[in-house]
Every structure is written in structure tokens, then in C-alpha cells.
Write a structure and sequence with these properties.
This protein is α/β, with parallel strands linked by helices. The protein has a single domain, classed as TIM Barrel, CATH 3.20.20. About 20% of the residues lie in helices and about 15% in strands. The protein has six helices and 14 strands. Strands 1, 2, 3, 11 and 12 form a five-stranded parallel sheet that branches. Strands 4-7-6 form a three-stranded mixed sheet, with no helix packed on it. Strand 2, helix 2 and strand 3 form a beta-alpha-beta unit. The structure holds 2-acetamido-2-deoxy-beta-D-glucopyranose (3 copies) and zinc ion. The site of zinc ion has 7 residues, from loops.
Length: about 350
């Protein structure tokens, strides 16, 4: 699996604040000075540094900026939602002929790793939404630095939704509004923030995740128009990347409640619409960041390697193991691509060794 580009997603009931570098916020030993304002003298340069801004990178403008859309899904991948992911995502292509790529913010409990591997193999991004899915902000605020994270996607913005804020590095002070305090104000050179640009629901209220928007759409038409309206807010302005952040539970539900099938039809209609536009690319968050680091206009986009068509990866999970763990009060099943760990993997014992 792609364990290089980890990150934390956020849900309405799961305000995971990624503070992996924030010793001063967590009351750790290290107190760091606030980051200075972003310089205008050219000392913050791509690909390693990028100031928070609504201006497209690389001096690109207008219709030469490809409109990036990241489709993301939070939480466990299971036999319930994988068939939807396969049918909705596996056969779509971007205008350059490459398969689209979505980002899955995965939590450990109930995830089926045989199916996670399948998503990865089909070119989708496997990203981190924590092992425990702990929902108390304080738990995350007390965390110290962890290794290997290069970006996070957990910070909503209302102020910079239209025109939208582009992803930026934390070398310098962010201009972004802080909806969920505390937000880091120290410098974290080279570490990217991928802002969650708020949608506006039909009632006029903002929503960072589309499944939080109110009123919850109940027809295909209302779902499609919610997505389209928020897409056009960016497509017709500065073309900042649009995140369609959701859970499969917005689209999959009991058959006796037709609103789920309606929403799914509206969501798929929206993907069909995006697929009909010559300058819209549905790419993973990491692919989007590669583009921001190396901005390439629509006119030259076929030369942009990180978005180029790729052969499907080999199946390294031909014989998944079905592992079972239990005690007198608790039971979990885990499909693994490796021999069953002795113990159920968990935080501080993620390999499940004794
Ligand atoms: C971070 O926390 C973990 C778990 O509490 C601890 O084992 C580790 O030593 C800490 N690392 C630092 C750099 O403080
Ligand atoms: C059973 O396992 C769960 C998960 O590890 C744990 O929370 C619980 O305390 C255990 N119960 C008993 C009776 O050992
Ligand atoms: C995980 O998915 C595989 C299909 O690849 C299936 O055979 C297996 O039963 C699933 N395991 C669980 C625990 O649902
Ligand atoms: Zn979640």
C-alpha cells in the first residue's frame, strides 16, 4: 500500500486536528515562535515553498488552469462500500486518457485490507484517517510529532472558498481562517496544507464535507445541483482545486429509503458531467500537490508525468487471509494480505505482534 503520503481527513463528528508538528500547542517541551509573514521577495519558491494564496501557481491563469477535483471517501473500506467504489470510479478517464484517482482516508477498524489493496492497485490513493478514529479534539491536540507525513487535509475555510485557497506550505504564516481552534501558527517548512474549501448548502450554510450540507438532498436533481453549484463557484473563478469530501454512507443506505439511490444517481451524474469537460481532472490529493509543485497549463498537460496513464499494479493479495480476533465481549474480523497477526493491530502495536 501507499504509506508514503499519509494525512488526516475530517468529518463533522470527527474533528481530527492534525497537530503532528505542534509541540507548542500540545504543551510539549518545545516552544516555537510564530511563523513570519510570507515574503514577497521571491525567497519562497516552488516546488518546496508556496505561500497561502488564491492566485493559481506558476503564473497560469484563466482556462489554461486545469480544474482539479479530488473525490475523497472517509473511514473503513468494507464489502458494503467497495462495490460502489468499483462501479463508480474504476472505469472513468481524465481528458489525458489516464484513469481517475480518488483519495481514501482510511481508518483501521473494520477495514478489509484485501479491498484496500484492490483500490490501491486500481490507482487510488490510500491516505490516513487514524487507526482509532478518536473523536475528541484534545486527544489529537496532545499528540507529538509523528514521522512521514508530508501534507494534511483537515482545515476548512469559509473566507477563501470563492475564489478558493490553493494548497500551501507552512513555511510562513497562513492567511487561512481558523474554524476549528487551535490552528498551528508556527512554521513547518515544506509541510503542505490542503485546505477544505467550504461548500454552501441549499440553506446558505457552509459545509466542509458534502454530507454535512443542509438540507440533505433527497433527489438526484438536488444532489446534482448542490455539487454543480459548488463546482462552478471554483470553475468560473480561480479554479482552485475542489474537494468532494464525503463518506460512502451518504450514498449507500437501506433499499426502503430511496433517497440514497437518488443521491448516488446525482453523484454519478456529477462525475459524468465532470468527465464531459476537457479541462477537468479527477486526481488524488497527492497528484494535485505534484501539480501545484510543478504547475502545467492545459495546453501542455499531456506532458505532465504525475497524471500520465499508468499500468495497473500487480495483485499482491491473491490469497487474502481472513483473521478473527475475540474475547468474551468483543469480536473483529480482518481480511489481511499478510499472514494473520497474532493480535488485532492497534495504535502502538500496528503490526499486531505480541
Ligand atoms: C511521542 O509520544 C510517544 C507515545 O507517547 C512516545 O513514545 C515518544 O517518545 C514521543 N516522542 C517524542 C519525540 O516526544
Ligand atoms: C476485549 O478486547 C477489547 C479490545 O481489545 C478490550 O477493549 C476489552 O477490554 C476486552 N475485554 C476483556 C473482557 O478482556
Ligand atoms: C474482505 O473482502 C474479501 C474480498 O476480496 C472477502 O472475500 C472477505 O470475506 C472480506 N472479509 C471480510 C471480513 O469481510
Ligand atoms: Zn471518519
Amino acid at each position: 500500500m501507499n504509506f508514503v503520503n499519509f494525512l488526516i481527513g475530517v468529518t463533522s463528528f470527527c474533528l481530527l486536528l492534525l497537530l503532528t508538528h505542534s509541540a507548542s500547542l500540545s504543551g510539549g517541551d518545545e516552544v516555537r515562535a510564530p511563523a513570519p509573514q510570507c515574503p514577497t521577495d521571491g525567497s519562497c519558491q516552488l516546488p518546496t515553498c508556496h505561500c497561502a494564496s488564491t492566485t493559481p501557481p506558476g503564473g497560469l491563469f484563466g482556462p489554461n488552469v486545469p480544474q482539479i477535483v479530488y473525490l475523497t471517501f472517509d473511514d473503513a473500506v468494507t464489502i458494503v462500500n467497495h462495490p460502489f467504489y468499483a462501479s463508480a470510479l474504476f472505469n472513468r478517464k481524465n481528458p489525458n486518457g489516464a484513469s481517475i484517482s480518488a483519495t481514501f482516508f482510511i481508518t483501521h477498524e473494520y477495514s478489509n485490507y484485501s479491498l484496500v489493496h484492490d483500490l490501491y492497485r486500481k490507482g487510488h490513493e490510500i491516505a490516513l484517517h487514524s487507526i482509532t478514529h478518536t473523536t475528541t479534539t484534545q486527544y489529537w491536540a496532545n499528540m507529538n510529532e509523528s514521522g512521514g507525513l508530508t501534507w494534511e487535509c483537515s482545515r476548512p475555510t469559509y473566507t477563501y472558498r470563492k475564489p478558493g485557497l490553493w494548497p500551501y506550505t507552512n513555511d510562513f504564516r497562513s492567511i487561512q481562517d481558523c474554524q476549528i481552534a487551535p490552528c498551528p501558527d508556527e512554521a513547518f517548512p515544506g509541510f503542505w496544507t490542503v485546505p477544505m474549501l467550504d461548500f454552501i448548502g441549499d440553506d446558505g450554510f457552509p459545509c466542509a464535507m458534502v454530507d454535512e450540507c443542509t438540507p440533505v438532498p433527497k433527489t438526484q436533481q438536488d444532489t446534482f445541483s448542490l455539487l454543480l453549484r459548488n463546482f462552478n463557484d471554483l470553475y468560473t473563478t480561480n479554479r482552485a482545486p475542489m474537494g468532494v469530501f464525503t463518506h460512502s454512507a451518504w450514498l449507500i443506505g437501506p433499499v426502503d429509503r430511496p433517497e440514497f439511490a437518488e443521491r448516488m444517481a446525482g453523484y454519478l451524474q456529477f462525475l459524468d458531467h465532470l468527465g464531459s469537460l476537457p479541462d477537468v481532472y479527477m486526481v488524488s490529493v497527492s497528484q494535485a500537490l505534484e501539480w501545484v509543485k510543478n504547475p502545467t497549463g492545459v495546453a501542455d498537460i499531456d506532458t505532465f508525468q504525475p497524471w500520465a496513464p499508468k499500468p495497473e499494479a500487480t495483485n499482491n493479495c491473491v490469497f487474502p487471509r481472513n483473521c478473527r480476533y475475540d474475547n468474551s465481549t468483543w469480536e473483529r474480523f480482518m481480511s489481511a494480505c499478510v499472514p494473520c497477526p497474532l493480535n488485532y493491530p492497534w495504535v502502538y502495536n500496528n503490526l499486531g505482534v505480541n
